[in-house]
Every structure is written in structure tokens, then in C-alpha cells.
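User: Okay, second chain of the day. Same drill as before: sequence in, C-alpha cells out.
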Amino acid sequence: MRVLEVVTYPPTEGIHVSETSRRELGDSDRPIEDELEDAFARMIDEGTQRLHRTWREVLATGFFGGTEVAMGVLAYLAVLHATHNQLLAGLAFSIGFLALLLGRSELFTEGFLVPVTTVAAKRASVGQLLKLWTGTLIANLVGGWVLMWLIMTAFPKLHAQTVESATHYISAPVSAETLALTLLGGMAITLMTRMQHGTDAMVGKIAAAVAGAFLLAGLQMFHSILDSLLIFGALATGTAPFGYLSWLSWFGYTALGNVIGGLGLVTLLRLVRSKDRLQEEREEAEDEPNSGSGTAESATAN
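Assistant: Same drill. C-alpha cells below.
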């Protein structure tokens, strides 16, 4: 006669998994999931390199970023002129983000998640972050202005479309709607950066670039660099119903909204999510004599 042995297990609902046990469940012993650990490591490695660039490197990388985004603007204007379909034009603009991704260039609004996380981890200084932001912003605008002048010279048939698209942004009154669009613009591109650092697969990174372009350009969110290039193009035609002072006033609140959206709606939440891992990284940085401010000083000296 066979005797069946019944084994009962305690209910799992409500059981608290200790920090040590949770670490043992994954491949690494870090306090966050393995996928988040991989993404965190990629951000710190990349951010450390970006923040320790010299001024020459920051300006050159930012200049190329502006020119590459301008090529995306050219694609956007060409498709919008031919189809009058904003969503298709937004997808065409992804050429600019793909150029940034594959060309390893720098866009000002891409400098929120990765560099801020790196500074929070004490792998770079606040001064280096400000250098990256300032240099990249100026170089983006200069490079974009040059390319938009060339584009308007080469494609006169796009003049009317460029003026129309630029006027949509610069003539918009400061309201709850436009301020929300600036916040969403900063959030969208920072979310794109987060998605690209969440995978090693190039297909995934490309998909994130296309998605970011669709949201920003296709839905006409307010973006300080992208829309500035449209405005520069309109000014280059000589027929724009506004001037550079109007652009500067628009740019001020748009850039501020992008920063708040990118930092407050994405970056800050990511830092809270990785709080324990950041603490470990800071402790490791403090134990390394050549990390943090020491590395920053040597990089500045070079």
C-alpha cells in the first residue's frame, strides 16, 4: 500500500524578504534589480566620461549635436511640406535623434538624467555639470543656427513651411497649456535617454529615439533646442514676423520648463528609486583617492 506524504508550505503572502535575501536572488549583490544595476552602471560609466571632457571637447560635441538635430529638422520640414501630416513629420525628425545616438553627439536636454546621476554618485562635481550644460547649450544653438542658414539657402521651397512652424511656437502666449508643453518636452527627451540606457541592444536604442521624436515633434511639445532651430530657420528666410528678441523671450521660459520637466518628472524619481545604490557608489568614490573632485581637478588641468 502506497503512502502519500503530504508536504505543506507556509503561505508566502505577506512574507518580508530581507535586504540580504533580495540581493542573493539576483546575479549581483547590489541593492537593486539586475536590470536596473546594469542600466545604473552604464549611466555612471558614460556620465563620468562626459563630465570629464575639456571645454574644447564639450563645445565640439555640442556643435555637432546642433548640426545633427538640424538635419532632423530638415527631414521634419520636408515631410510636413509634402504631406501636411504632423505625426509623419515627427517620425521623420527621428533622423536627428538617430544621428545623435550613432554619432555620439550631445544635446543640452539629454544632459539631465545621466550627468545628474553621475554627480549624485560623486563621480563628478557640480562645476563639471554646469560646464557641460553651459557649453553644450551654447554650442547646440550655434551649430544649429549655421545648419539652418544653409538649409534655408539650399531649400527655398521650405521657407513658408518653416515660418509657419516657427510661428506656432514663438507666438504662443505664456499659459498653462504652453508651460505644460515645456514640462512634457523636458520629460519626453529625458525619458528617451532613460529608455536608451535601459538596454544594450541597438534596436532598443533606435526604437527609443524614434519614440522620443514622435512625442516631441509629432505632438508639437515645446523643446528649447528643436524649436529654436525652426525659429532660426524662419529668421534666416528674412520673412519671419518676429526677431531674435522674441526668440530670446520664448527660449527663456521654454528652457526652464524643459529643465524642470526633465529633472523633476524623470531624473529625481530615478534617483529616489536608486537611492541605496547611489549611497554605495558615493562610499566607493570617497574611498578612491583619484575619484570625484580629485578627478575633476585633473581633468580641468588638462
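Confidence is low (pLDDT under 50) at residues 15-19, 291-302.

User: Thanks, on to the next one.
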